[in-house]
Amino acid sequence: MCRLFLATCLALAVPALARAAECGGDFGAFVAGLKAEMRAEGLSAAQADAFFRGVSQDARVLRADRGQGVFRKDFLDFSASVISQNRLTIGARMGTKHTAVFDRAERSFGVPRGVLLAFWGLETDFGAVQGDFSTRDALVTLAHDCRRPDLFRPQVLAAARLAARGDFDPARTRGAWAGEIGQVQMLPADILVNGVDGDGDGHIDLKGSAPDALMSGAKMIAGMGWRAGEPWMQEITVPADLDWRQTGLNHALSTADWARMGVRGRTGALAPGQGSVLLPMGRKGPAFMVYPNFRVLFEWNKSFVYVTSAAYFATRLEGAPRLDPRAPEPGLSADQMKALQAKLAARGHDVGKIDGILGEKTREAVQAEQARLGLPADAWPTAALLGRL
Question: Which of 328, 364, 365 is nearest to 346 (CA)?
Answer without folding.
Answer: 365
